[in-house]
Amino acid sequence: MNKSKNLLGLYIHWPYCESKCPYCDFNSHVNESIDIDLWIKSYTNQIYQMKEDIIEYNLNYDGLSSIFFGGGTPSLMPLEIIESILNISYKLFNFNRDIEISLEANPSSYEIEKFVDLKKLGINRLSVGVQSLNSKNLHFLGRLHNVNDVYNALDHATKTFDNVSVDLMYAFHGQDINLWIDELESFLKRYDLKHISLYQLTIEKGTKFFTDYKKGLIQLIDNDLAADFYTKTNMILSKYHFNRYEISNYSKINFECKHNLNYWNSDNWIGIGPGAYGRLWTSNTKLQRIEYQNYKNPKSWVNQNVNYCSFEKIKMLNTYDTDVDTLSMGLRLEKGFRISRLIDRKLIKSKQFKTLQDKKIIFEKDGFIVLSKNYLIKLNSIINFLMND
After folding, report:
1. Consecutive H or E run containing 328
2. How many separate helices (H) and strands (E) can be counted in the chain?
């Protein structure tokens, strides 16, 4: 019997925020009063059910390798809920010695007051939603905080946690590229950050920005200017010893986000909470994958899970869909992904794949399939090309 150990992560979704940002297409809702006991019961029921399923699938693992509290704004979660989830997770799954336990927070005074308590509960990695480095752009992005809030939050965060990450958005219409570079460099000089997630603003359907764009109230940035933003930003981050290990993610050595690497490497994770989804291999041979999808509406999710665990949908992914996911997620990584992770290699035997190889856009190296660094920013169009046979 194959006794190799698998990585296993746990994702917890908290759906509430103080306000809905105009660019956000995540499953997030404006804060409302909740019954803490009912939420604890619902999270608990899902965790217990996933433990039973993992035993049934005969999935070998040492313990949880990562836990990620995402949202929404999970730093708004009542501490009792966070503590309960961590206690139950440890009891049922055990923790790896070097487990990464991340939680997302915003630079508000209310959340800063909780940083020390979060660390006491076991959070060892804080991801702060800074989003922009000047107040004008923060206002455009619909954020409730200003630059002074950012500095205050990060002063506290970097004193409290050894591993702090920030989220930033850039390259949107009207943003001054020289001002952005100056802001970013000054920011990196000031803080000992270990990780940065850096996203160019995109207009997603279902958001206020999408509606405004359709009305002509906001514009898209010129593609050439966006590429210039990308190139110059990468140069600054490299100067400050940040390694780009994924299209939009940069870290100091050994501070890559373990939980997100789980996604990009198509490993195993449990997803609990409204709208969360999880994926597990049903055996150690990695020949079949199952996906769990949760009810998105918070009240519906609680109603469905408070007495026993209930997912909106559980489905077996077919070989093609599994391989497409493995390829599209794995190519996000600068080092690429192992060819052995593909169940069926038809995708890499197609005419399209051969075309990309001939153009040196994709190549094989030491058992990995890798996307050329110059083409990482064009991944979506490359995936679309591969899928059109």
Report:
1. helix 319-330
2. 14, 17
pLDDT band at 29 (very low <50, low <70, confident <90, very high): confident
The answer to whether 297 and 274 have CB atoms below 8 angstroms apart is yes
Paired residues of 66 in beta bridges: 9, 100
Token pair in block for residue 37? 């006991």
Check if the beta carbon of residue 23 is closer than 8 Å to that of residue 278. no
pLDDT, residue 23, reads 60
- What whole-number distance in Å separates Cα of residue 107 and Cα of residue 102? 16
- Torsion angle (degrees, nearest 10) of CA 36, 260, 66, 310: 40
130, 168 Cβ separation under 8 angstroms: yes
Residue 36, C-beta contacts closer than 8 angstroms, at least 6 positions apart: 78, 80, 81
Please, what CATH class does the domain formed by 8-261 belong to?
A: alpha beta
- Under 8 Å between Cβ of 158 and 191: yes
- State mean pLDDT over 259-273: 96
Q: In Å, how far are 131, 152, 164 from 73, measured between CA atoms?
A: 14, 18, 16
Decide if pLDDT at 376 tops 70.
yes
Q: What is the pLDDT of residue 65?
A: 97
- Given a cut of 50, whether residue 6 has pLDDT beyond it is yes
Q: By C-alpha distance, which of 18, 36, 32, 82 is closest to 272?
A: 82
CB contact at 8 A, 272 and 43: yes
168: enclosing H helix or E strand: strand 164-170
Q: Which two tokens stand for residue 203?
A: 């207009």
Residue 139: helix, strand or coil by DSSP?
Answer: helix
Paired strand residues for 371: 362
> Terminal CA-to-CA distance of the chain, rounded, Å?
39
How far is Cα 297 from Cα 307, in angstroms, rounded to an integer?
17
Angstrom distance (rounded) from CA 289 to CA 297: 25
Where does CATH 3.20.20.70 sit in the chain?
8-261
Residue 1 is predicted with a pLDDT of: 33
